Amino acid sequence: MAESVVRALYGKATSLNLNSKKMKDVPTCVSTITNLSVLLLNNNAITTLPAELLSLRHLAELNLGNNSLKEVPAVLGHLESLKKLYLFRNQITVVPPEVIGGLQNLVVLNLNHNQIRSLPPDIKSLSNLQHLSVLDNKLEEVPAELGHLTKLSEINLTSNKLSLLPQQLCQCKDLTRLHVARNQLTSLPEGIRALVKLQVMDVAGNKLTIFPIEFHLLPLKELHCEGNRFLHCEPLPSVQDVEVLTLKELVARFALLEDRNRSSLVHRNLPHYPCLTALLANSSCCALCLGPFLTTWLECVHFISLKKDMKMRSSLTIPVRALLCSYKCFNTDGHSYYGVATR
Fold first, then answer.
1. Whether the Cβ atoms of residue 102 and residue 77 lie closer than 8 Å to each other
2. I want to staple 86 with a disulfide (CB 3.0 to 4.6 A). Which of 63, 163, 210, 266 is the partner?
3. How far apart are CA 246 and CA 242, in angstroms?
4. Are the CB atoms for 96 and 119 separated by under 8 Å?
5. How many CB atoms lie within 10 A of CB 28?
6. Taking a C-beta distance cutoff of 8 angstroms, is the pair 325, 289 a contact?
7. Helix or strand holding residue 214 (H, E)
8. Nearest-angstrom CA–CA distance, 337 and 304
9. Whole-Å CA distances, 41 to 16, 63, 80
10. Which one-letter DSSP state was computed for residue 126?
11. Residue 298's beta-bridge partner residues?
């Protein structure tokens, strides 16, 4: 090990490989190799890092995988040139916000196989992050600030304890791969249709019953969804209540319809009423007549063939959520929407 460090020091090396050296501590002399851009310390027994490593101003890749770290070392927050950071297979329980805040150039972050229960909101500082992997941890939630990471192309949250994903995830428009298998998800975020580059999704082994509205319009090439609790197409007799819309709903539908007409009085004046604008922003659109409405009136499902409708190789049929504005639309002939029975 000493020979490797000396050779790197006098040879002005830009990379140093100290993996599998049975080290418990990192030699402080490593910090004198200031030209280092790659440092491999994986497969050792390292429990901490010396503060002197902050002198490695050019370090772009650091591999600390398969060690004995119990926390993310504070010195990492000072390595502002880091682009790739691997911390897999340690004993990390917490990701300190002050460390994350200093890693604004990070492109790859691998925290697989640790004991992490949450990620700090400060993760929004990682504005250049493209690959985030926190597989096999104890995550119970994902911060809404994840939506600030608009350069993310791959997220892997497989094998955690997540019951939901933040709505803000739909702001990650460059996302191409989303892995959230083996969690406790009961639903996916509405608006996921906004992920226009998403090609691979793995939601296997969750508690999903239905996919979000317009899910079938995603450009997916692979969908893994086995081991969920999806709705089945089993027609049952139903009783339709009398349609009675509240005054609020009637006025909202009128305002929403008028707002579509750019020359209307409502459209011109709505910006002057921010509270009303915010209320109407939560509206939906009928899957049949395309008319707007505020309150979910009738939740339906239609069954999508992955092969026929989404051009995949799989022969699976999946349930996709749809909303209708009235029984009048629901009772129209020629559509394939079913009401959802509650038992």
1. yes
2. 63
3. 13
4. no
5. 11
6. yes
7. none
8. 11
9. 9, 6, 19
10. -
11. 324
User: By three-state DSSP, how is residue 284 classified?
Assistant: strand
Q: What is the pLDDT along the chain (343 residues), one digit of tens a residue?
A: 545 555 555 446 799 999 999 999 999 999 999 999 999 999 999 999 999 999 999 999 999 999 999 999 999 999 999 999 999 999 999 999 999 989 999 999 999 999 999 999 999 999 999 999 999 999 999 999 999 999 999 999 999 999 999 999 999 999 999 999 999 999 999 999 999 999 999 999 999 999 999 999 999 999 999 999 998 876 656 666 667 788 998 999 999 999 999 999 999 999 999 999 999 998 999 999 999 999 877 889 999 999 999 999 998 999 999 999 988 898 899 899 988 766 5
| Distance between CA atoms of residues 234 and 58, nearest Å | 62
Beta bridge partners of 154: 131, 177
Give the contacts of 300 (CB within 8 A, at least 6 positions apart): 287, 321, 322, 323, 324, 330, 337, 338, 339, 340
Token pair for 45: 């027994």
User: Letter for the amino acid at 271?
Assistant: P
Distance of CA 173 to the CA centre of its chain: 11
The structure tokens listed for 229 are 């609790």
Q: What distance lies between CA 116 and its chain's CA centroid? A: 17
- Bridge partners of 303, per DSSP, are 319
CB atoms within 10 A of CB 64: 27
* Predicted structure pTM score: 0.89
